[in-house]
Every structure is written in C-alpha cells, then in structure tokens.
Amino acid sequence: MDIRICYLYPEMMNIYGDRGNVTALVRRCRWRGIPVDVEGLGLSEKVKPDRYDIFFMGGGQDREQVLVCHDLLENKGDAIRREIERGAAALVICGGYQLFGKYYRPFDGEKLPGINVFDAYTVAGENRMIGNVVAKSALGGRFGTVVGFENHSGKTYLGKESAPLGMVTVGSGNNGEDRTEGAVHLGAVGTYLHGSLLPKNPGLADFLIERGLARRGERSSLKPLDDTLEWRAHREAVARARKTH
Ligand code: GLN
Is there a contact between 1 and 213 (Cβ–Cβ < 8 Å)? Predict the structure, then answer.
C-alpha cells in the first residue's frame, strides 16, 4: 500500500521551512512501515490521474505566485481539484493556499485566479500579519490545537462551502478579523501556518496520511507513534505564542 506524495513546485513554493512538512509525512509513514514516495512537479508538468494520494505546496512570494498561478490554470488545476474530489488529501500553505481558492488579488498586478478547491478568496491587506499563531482545531489531535507562525499580507475570507481549519486564540489567521484560520474541504487543508507545521502538529499530519491511505482503500486507523517529542514541541510553541501576544 504505497502512499504517493505530489510536491508541487518544490523549487519555487518553499519558504519558512515548509519543505519540512513533506519530511514529516514521509517519516511518519516510514516509522509505521508504510512505503511512501515523493514526486516533485514543476512548471508545465501534468498531474497523472489517480497517481497521487497527498498533494503539498508551500508558500512563496507574489512573484512566484504569478508564475505558479498561470501554470496551475494551464496544466494542473483541474486535475488537482478532480483528485481531491475523488479522495486525495492536500496540504497547501500561505501563498499555495491562496491559489487553491477562487482568486488572490495582490496589491499591485493582476488578479490571480485560483483553482477553486476552497470556497475562499484573498485580497491584499494594508499590513503584513506576522507572528505566532495558535488555533483551536478539530484536526489538532491530542490538545485540539494547531500552532505555527504566519507571515502574509493577503486576507482570506471563507464562503459557506469551506470550513475553517480552526479558530485563532493567538495571532491573525485568515484575515485578522473573523478569527478563522485556514480552510478544509474534504481531505484538503489550506493554512497560513508555516514552521514547518506538521512536525509539531502530529494530529494534522496523521489526518493527511489517513486520508491518503483511505484513497487507496486502506481504512484501518494508523498505528500510534511515540510523539513525546512532537507534543513537547507543540506545547513549547503554544506557550511561546501565548507569551508573545
Ligand atoms: N504573497 C502572499 C502574501 O503575502 C503569500 C506569502 C507567503 O506565502 N508567505 O499574502
């Protein structure tokens, strides 16, 4: 039962340690004896139908987002949306998250159409939202929270079709106004949380792996891992976030 991870634009969309999320997914599969492969897809490369179980895209600056936006529209967006509708999981961070909604309108330059996985849109905000974030989340596992840090000017607003990943108790989250953070649609998770996120949020990592396995018809729950270190990192990060706000 191989899990295959599609790492979208690994050279272009990978800031603030986002690559660490792929490492965490791979390690948590291998520690359980689950064979796992990672394939990077760059500009102009197509998504083969039914090939991938988990998609990942990290954050990037506006310049890379323009190039990636055009490529998604031309070569990958419809296929990725279809794969998610058919059960694939996804984790997309910040700039990647923004392109999985309806559109992202930066301060200057063209409005960037998204691939419509999330019922959400993003507009450039006046100020950058930078700092640690804690959000209460059903996908947060043991403590019911997800923690990371944010650095974005985009403000994302959710429509009725997409639920938030969680509700911030520290930090700005999607827009600094409605306390939502991130978006969830089927097995796809979008979030502003960099960090990288998954090493200190093992509950969320396992949600993605379980969805990836279910895609292959494997519905048994995952063998628990000794996450003592991961949860200690989680608690430290939450404590630091609470001190800095
Ligand atoms: N350029 C986008 C913004 O600032 C995304 C930045 C990022 O991926 N960190 O909102």
Answer: yes
